[in-house]
Write a structure and sequence with these properties.
Strand order of the largest sheet: 4-10-9-8-7-5-6
Cofactor: pyridoxal 5'-phosphate
Largest sheet: 7 strands, mixed
Number of helices: 15
Organism: Desulfomarina profundi
Keywords: Aminotransferase, Pyridoxal phosphate, Pyruvate, Transferase
Protein name: Taurine--pyruvate aminotransferase
Number of strands: 15
Family: Belongs to the class-III pyridoxal-phosphate-dependent aminotransferase family.
Shape: globular
């Protein structure tokens, strides 16, 4: 019989064996477990985590996928969730609940140009909702008839479902999962370090942005309904566009009636030194999706937020049977959970009261400055980032920009973790280009912790090459 405390007690060797024999891990080749023990994290406080063997690490990844915004061990979030779950844990999202109403209001305070919030449980699902809105609008709105296609950018990632993968520009994430959903078309990425058009900024003609119009014209403007972006490309290598990029893209989209969807799943909630990643640019999205930092990953939650004019497309006077079906016919089971809303409210309160967005801006600038000192090492090709969201790209030599090998990258990652610091990397995404280390620590990070991270990375590089 399972007792109330069983989940708190464990035998180390039993857990190690269970991890190897029972779990199907994310993004890990099965052979990884034949000759090595997987790290099992059991405790966290602030930016520090402890594994099941008692080894301590400074985590520069906010939980591995950039989502624990306010740090580990926040009792106030756990207590708020506990109290809410005792009172009312769940009721389907076709009804209302007080935490959801309150958090929707808080989100709209942060997004004054948008008016309606749809809750679900993951970033993939939030993007799926956006796509379904675009697709259904193309059937029921006379002004948008036939505009069902959705453009996406090379190297951007939008989720793990088949629809979200269809809009993802990372070949290795998609390989073997096709055929994909029809109606998704790729546009070029906007990385100056490896320009697709062999141009040099600022002397270029912003070919990367103008290519969006080329794709719209190729596909037919009467068929293209939306384009989705990560404000700053995340898993594709930390790619911040130049300031002219989004205004030009927006001008093109407005010309052809193409909605702009901003995927703020990674960039939102202060990651980039502003509350939203798109706030670094002069751009006005029509739909914004979000997850990860929404509740600092203390609970699972995502949202799709839209302008009133989009919501109004689905408001129809049911004069006949056809119009009765024109509402947005969608549901998300876990969009009715109350605990994530409470966790999100408390996490957002912490971000605001502790000025963590400002800390992200200030300490993020310090992180980028310190990482830039690594350029004195011959295998460091590029250092880039915004706020607490930085990347370092590794090359054989700085002149050729030829990427290092995957095996060298694996050795480098092992050497850095051997220094007691966990960093992330572009992984299983870009053929021959999974050579970028990424840094996205919790927003509470200090300058002293930045120094520890960069020192560990330098030591790891020097041991590897």
């Amino acid at each position: 019989m399972v007792t109330k405390t069983d989940w708190l007690e464990y035998d180390v060797e039993e857990m190690v064996a269970g991890d190897k024999n029972d779990l199907w891990h994310h993004l890990k080749p099965h052979k990884c477990f034949e000759n090595q023990e997987q790290m099992i994290i059991v405790e966290g406080k602030g930016l520090n985590v402890t594994d099941i063997r008692g080894r301590k690490y400074l985590d520069a990844t906010s939980g591995g996928v950039w989502s624990v915004m306010v740090g580990y061990g926040r009792d106030s979030i756990a207590e708020a969730v506990c109290e809410q779950m005792k009172k009312m844990p769940y009721f389907a999202g076709v009804f209302g609940n007080v935490p959801a109403i309150k958090f929707a209001g808080k989100l709209l305070e942060k997004l004054p140009r948008l008016q309606k919030v749809y809750f679900s449980n993951s970033g993939s699902e939030a993007n799926e909702k956006a796509y379904k809105i675009v697709r259904q609008a193309s059937r029921i709105d006379p002004a948008r008839k036939g505009k069902y296609k959705i453009l996406f950018r090379d190297r951007d990632y939008h989720g793990t479902t088949l629809g979200a993968l269809s809009s993802t520009g990372q070949f290795e994430r998609k390989n073997d999962f096709g055929p994909f959903v029809e109606g998704f078309m790729e546009v070029p990425q906007c990385l100056c370090y490896r320009c697709n058009f062999n141009q040099t900024y600022p002397g270029c003609n912003m070919e990367c942005a103008r290519a969006v119009e080329d794709v719209i014209l190729r596909e037919g403007p009467d068929t293209v309904g939306a384009i989705i972006f990560e404000p700053i490309t995340a898993g594709g290598g930390i790619l911040p566009p130049v300031k002219e990029y989004y205004p030009l893209v927006q001008e093109i989209c407005r010309k052809y009636g193409v909605w702009i969807i901003m995927d703020e799943v990674v960039c939102g909630f202060g990651r980039t030194g502003k509350f939203w990643g798109h706030e670094h640019y002069d751009v006005d999205p029509d739909i914004i999706t979000m997850a990860k930092g929404l509740a600092s990953s203390y609970e699972a939650l995502s949202a799709t937020v839209v302008k009133q004019e989009i919501y109004d497309i689905f408001l129809n006077d049911p004069a006949n049977d056809d119009e009765r079906m024109n509402f947005f016919r969608d549901i998300s089971t876990y969009g009715g959970c109350t605990a994530p809303m409470v966790a999100a409210l408390e996490s957002t309160r912490i971000i605001e009261e502790e000025n963590l967005v400002e800390n992200s801006r200030e300490v993020g600038a310090y992180l980028l400055e310190k990482l830039s000192t690594l350029k004195d090492l011959p295998n460091v090709g590029d250092v880039r980032g915004v706020g607490l969201f930085c990347g370092v790209e590794f090359v054989v030599d700085q002149e050729s920009k030829v990427p290092i090998t995957e095996s060298q990258m694996a050795v480098l990652m092992g050497n850095i973790i051997g220094e007691g610091v966990i960093v992330g990397r572009t992984n299983n995404s870009l053929p021959g280009m999974n050579t970028i280390i990424n840094f996205a620590p919790c927003l509470i990070i200090t300058r002293e912790q930045v120094d520890t991270i960069v020192a560990a990375v330098r030591a790891g590089i020097e041991k590897t090459f």
